[in-house]
Amino acid sequence: MVIKVERGNPTPEELAAVIALVQARAAAAAGPADGPRAADEWASPARNVPGRMPRPAPASWRSTYWPH
Question: Which of 14, 19, 57, 65 could be 10's S-S partner, Cβ–Cβ 3.0 to 4.6 Å?
Fold first, then answer.
């Protein structure tokens, strides 16, 4: 990045303030840095969890293991 002073004679403090402002604006416009991304809804594990599990039939526990 090159900043050229066209008119005037800014002090080093004024020039540093302008450069800091330009860099802050550029960083804000670029968006978030290489941080964690928001999970895509299609990849969300919550999609695989059913909303409500069906209730088992009465005495269904008997047919799960023991033979008749």
Answer: 14
